[in-house]
Design brief:
Largest sheet of chain A: 6 strands, parallel
Helix content of chain A: 40-55%
CATH architecture of the largest domain in chain B: 3-Layer(aba) Sandwich
Radius of gyration of chain B: 17 Å
Number of helices of chain A: 22
Distance between the termini of chain A: 58 Å
CATH topology of the largest domain in chain A: Rossmann fold
Structural class of chain A: alpha/beta
Number of helices of chain B: 13
Number of domains of chain A: 3
CATH class of the largest domain in chain B: Alpha Beta
Number of domains of chain B: 2
Number of strands of chain B: 8
Helix content of chain B: 40-55%
Largest interface: A-B, 74 and 75 residues
Oligomer: heterodimer
């Protein structure tokens, strides 16, 4: 099902759409307000963009530097070419230690690799410990946003869900109460866990360690209670050193949720005493994107979600309408790399308004990449024959003044056509809108007369 | 010095009064211009649909018709953005810089090049400005709310030179209207929802007129307004600048 179809279903619930739109716009406004307090905000974005360009161009060297330093710190480093190898690597580590219970903090990479179903199939219990993630895990659905994964749900729905899953009081949807119940439930899971999995926000090459940002402290509990920590990262997460890290830490939370910094910014620079720390560096299509000049800048993404929050289409269609693990503008830019056929509608799920490009803390040219994708998809044959024909005919008519005149003559017939011939199910424009009436005389004619009269 | 006037296809066919208002403005300020009658379109509908080869031919036609003018003026931000930003990619074998550098959207031309100070027209209405995305974010006619830069707005500055005009403020001053070319039919539901939200914002702040630099966005909003039989009206900025009530 393409984005337009799923979006039109989402939007049928007018009240929910308004609420969803406003909730995300609130995040955008918070981002605006807090970035306003940083006089050098635009310089910071420029700096972050340049650092990322530099890292993307020298990724091979930085990855090796990172690996060497990580090994020196006593961390075990693994490489995975794709999601499958990543999942197997995680499983092998767990199996070697006879682990059957795992806690996991937020990680878009593990979502991308579908780690949870893989481990569950092998009989391992995986508990997502981020509250939003736990909610959608209970519901057995993917996140609808990369930072606020359960933003599509209202508190009443969460109340009902917890009634079923956590035996909470019937009809109680007080957020404070529900959060406390989830906290008690998760506390048990933390204590039972034999290993903790985290994502990675930044991998510092000069230090050989990783940084994980959370608001709930769940990554810290999940890595400090059980003896084994597995950190999973996409190979683009590298930053050269601590100084560069500081630039991104200033941008990340401000862009994401309008906070000055995430509540917890945890630095994992080696295994804890008597513990084990593993880092899995995952490619999964990234090196292919690296080789594509028009698209490689998308590897600069720090997954803040700012482009998603500002996107007027995302806000009115919800994350699940995109059908890819990452929704919104950045998701629409990444998804076709993985499956052009499946995700062909995503680059068209945009007005190319450019707000995404403007909020992006690392200055990814998101709306230009979306436009580029339209060209690539069309060249690859992913275009409806009717649309192709229409564009061809338009191209021919607009390429000749005479044919343009003839086409205009026929367009004028709209003036006397009865309404039922104009407004029918095939005319999508006319479903909720009137069609502009062709003028009695075109500008060309009016201007000719005007010139004569002078 | 001769200026070439480019009137986009949909203005030619549906909104000739916008083209004529542009003509009146240029005449009023004594700008020597020509309107090449062979012109049709900039090619944006095809380019934004991904049909690059169809767009390329139309772009070539435009290039040949306009390259010899000293300056090119067009009353549409979106078409100008197309020429400035997409032509280099569509016509790689042409030296596009001279063409893109001398192509101006009307407001940009009036404020930056002609430095118009007085308009001597009156427009006693409550007007809301619809900041079309391509004018805003591609041509930078105003500071976009996403950016932390000094605030400016060439469209508003120019409109404020009109006597008796009252410019209202909006809750979301530069949110997209949802037109987006083919997006308007391809994603009809979202497109209309976005348009309705813009209209509500203008109505909430008691605007009676919505204006902007892009008639295409206004056409989409007008379509919704007319169907809903709302008293709001849309006017291209050129119409207001010549005082057409």
């Amino acid at each position: 099902m393409n984005h337009a179809v799923k979006a039109s279903k989402f939007i049928e619930d007018i009240e929910r759409t308004k609420w969803h739109n406003d909730a995300l716009w609130f995040l955008r406004q918070k981002r605006d307000r807090i970035s306003d307090t940083i006089p050098e905000w635009e310089d910071l974005r420029e700096k972050a963009s340049l650092i990322k360009d530099h890292v993307i161009s020298n990724l091979d060297e930085y990855l090796i530097e990172f690996e060497n330093n990580a090994i020196r710190n006593g961390i075990k480093v693994h490489w995975a070419i794709d999601g499958e190898e990543h999942n197997r690597t995680v499983y092998d580590i767990l199996k070697n230690h006879n682990v059957t219970k795992v806690v996991k903090s937020k990680s878009m990479l593990t979502e991308e690799c579908h780690l949870n179903p893989f481990l569950e199939e092998k009989g391992i219990e995986v508990v997502d410990t981020d509250l939003g993630e736990r909610i959608i895990q209970f519901r057995n659905e993917p996140p609808s946003h990369i930072v606020v994964p359960a933003i599509h749900l209202k508190k009443e729905e969460i109340g009902e869900l917890f009634e079923e899953k956590l035996n909470t009081e019937k009809g109680n949807s007080d957020p404070q109460y529900l959060t406390e119940e989830a906290r008690q439930h998760l506390r048990e899971k933390f204590l039972e866990a034999e290993a903790g999995i985290t994502g990675v926000n930044f991998a510092v090459a000069s230090e050989g360690g990783v940084v994980v940002c959370t608001n709930e402290g769940n990554a810290d509990l999940g890595t400090n209670l059980p003896p084994i920590h597995i950190a999973c990262m996409g190979l683009e997460k590298i930053v050269p050193g601590k100084e560069e890290l500081a630039v991104f830490l200033r941008l990340l939370a401000r862009s994401a949720t309008g906070q000055p910094i995430t509540t917890y910014t945890s630095h994992f620079f080696g295994p804890r005493k008597d513990g084990e720390m593993h880092i899995i560096i995952v490619d999964n299509g990234r090196s292919k994107i690296l080789g594509e000049e028009d698209f490689k800048k998308s590897l600069a993404c720090i997954r803040c979600g700012a482009c998603i929050n500002t996107c007027p289409i995302y806000r009115r269609s919800g994350g699940h309408s995109y059908g890819y693990v990452i929704p919104g503008p950045i998701g629409s830019v990444l998804a076709p790399h993985y499956n052009m056929k499946k995700h062909q509608s995503l680059p068209f799920a945009s007005t190319l308004c450019g707000s995404c490009t403007n909020v992006c803390p690392v200055k990814i040219d998101l709306h230009h990449q979306l436009l580029k994708w339209r060209e690539v998809l069309t060249q690859q044959g992913f275009i409806k024959p009717s649309k192709k024909l229409m564009m061809k005919l338009m191209g021919i008519a607009l390429n000749s003044s005479t044919l343009y005149g003839i086409a205009a003559f026929f367009a004028k017939s709209l003036r006397w056509m009865p309404r039922f011939m104009i407004y029918h199910s095939l005319n999508k424009w006319g479903n909720q809108r009137e069609i502009p009436e062709p003028a009695k005389e075109s500008f060309k004619t009016a201007f000719k007369k005007h010139k004569k009269s002078k | 010095m001769t200026v070439g006037l480019f009137i986009p296809c949909y203005i030619d066919q549906f909104y000739p009064q916008v083209g004529m208002a542009t003509v009146k403005l240029l005449e009023k300020f004594g700008i020597d211009f020509e309107y090449p009658f062979e012109q049709t379109c900039c090619g944006q509908p095809m380019a934004n649909s991904g049909c690059t080869s169809d767009a390329k031919k139309v772009a070539e036609k435009f290039y040949n018709e306009f390259i010899n003018y000293d300056q090119i003026i067009c009353p549409s931000g979106s078409c100008v953005a197309m020429i400035k930003h997409q032509y280099p990619h569509l016509l790689p074998d042409k030296d596009i810089k001279p063409l893109s550098e001398k192509t101006y959207e009307l407001v940009e031309f009036l404020t930056e090049i002609s430095e118009i100070n007085q308009l001597e027209v009156s427009y006693p209405h409550k007007v809301g400005i619809h900041q079309s995305c391509h004018g805003l974010r591609e041509l930078k006619l105003a500071s976009a709310t996403e950016l932390r830069i000094d605030s400016y707005n060439k469209v508003e500055t120019l409109l404020k030179k009109v006597k008796d005009i009252e410019i209202i403020s909006l809750d979301r001053s530069d949110e997209c209207c949802g037109f987006g070319g083919m997006f308007s039919t391809y994603e009809e539901a979202i497109s209309c929802s976005m348009g309705n939200d813009r209209i509500q914002d203008h109505l909430k702040h008691q605007a009676t007129i919505i204006t902007g630099v892009d008639m295409s966005c206004l056409m989409h909003l007008e379509g919704l307004i007319k169907r809903q039989k709302s008293p709001l009206q849309v006017k291209h900025i050129a119409e207001i600048l010549v005082g057409e009530q």
